[in-house]
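Example 9 (inverse folding). The structure is encoded as follows.
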């Protein structure tokens, strides 16, 4: 039995993949909803697993998938305490590079499996739309979860250098915060001034990532901008969707960490130091 805690866009996509892979699930959230996942090939999968809205109604499972936003982790702790036995692994599908630190005191570090999600999904009127592109979750090599989604559209991809993989994703996440601040989707990066800002921010993030032990290739900042320019103009990011919906933003795990880690290594982060308070104040 697998429990998915937090059934937003990414939680729903992961739950759909696990159902298609043949697993028994329980969906844990504050409220029950009727959700359908529409894949990029046009097919639809309606979630069929039972919903539970009270942690007291569940017991230990074989695997917990934590798919709440990073800043919602504290509210998920009662679920984790009920769903875990002593050695139950927790696959953490959250942005950032501080997965184990965020769960300290609730889940032993050796039971935390950090996951890097490469999938763009947006919930629109009860349907989770999966945008065209890669649909994969990167996990540290040797975690034994590699085959959990076999038979579905979602790949679990073990990586040897997880530090580099996590920072690679974080650089993208930090840069696309520009979408949340402008209220615009990927088309905003075609503005020359925004494109220049995005590159400078990517350079800043790469410097911090390198100091933290990541081994990003030369020219990675330019690669980030090239990828953003290649995206369909209607593509967005979860922090933009949250801003448009008036929800609290996941700014600290995506951008605040750049300033924090930069300061710890003595690296100036002037762009992040401006963006972070703006993101924190955004409503």
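The amino acid assigned to each position is listed next.
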């Amino acid at each position: 039995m697998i429990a998915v805690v937090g059934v937003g866009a990414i939680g729903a996509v992961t739950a759909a993949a696990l159902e298609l892979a043949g697993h028994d699930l329980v969906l844990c959230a504050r409220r029950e909803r009727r959700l359908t996942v529409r894949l990029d090939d046009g097919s639809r999968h309606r979630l069929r697993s039972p919903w539970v809205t009270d942690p007291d109604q569940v017991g230990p499972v074989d695997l917990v998938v934590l798919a709440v936003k990073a800043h919602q982790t504290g509210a998920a702790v009662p679920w984790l305490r009920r769903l875990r036995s002593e050695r139950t692994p927790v696959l953490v599908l959250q942005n950032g590079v501080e997965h184990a630190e965020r769960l300290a005191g609730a889940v032993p570090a050796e039971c935390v499996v950090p996951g890097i999600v490469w999938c763009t999904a947006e919930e629109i009127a009860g349907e989770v739309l999966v945008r065209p592109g890669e649909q994969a979750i990167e996990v540290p090599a040797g975690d034994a979860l590699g085959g959990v989604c076999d038979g579905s559209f979602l790949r679990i991809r073990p990586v040897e250098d997880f530090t580099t993989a996590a920072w690679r994703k974080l650089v993208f996440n930090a840069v696309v915060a520009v979408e949340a601040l402008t209220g615009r989707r990927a088309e905003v990066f075609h503005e020359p001034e925004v494109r220049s800002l995005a590159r400078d921010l990517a350079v800043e993030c790469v410097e911090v990532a390198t100091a933290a032990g990541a081994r990003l290739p030369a020219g990675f900042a330019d690669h980030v901008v090239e990828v953003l320019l290649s995206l369909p103009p209607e593509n967005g990011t979860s922090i933009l969707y949250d801003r448009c919906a008036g929800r609290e933003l996941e700014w600290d795990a995506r951008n605040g960490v750049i300033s924090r880690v930069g300061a710890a290594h003595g690296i100036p982060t002037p762009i992040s130091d401006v963006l972070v308070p703006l993101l924190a104040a955004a409503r």
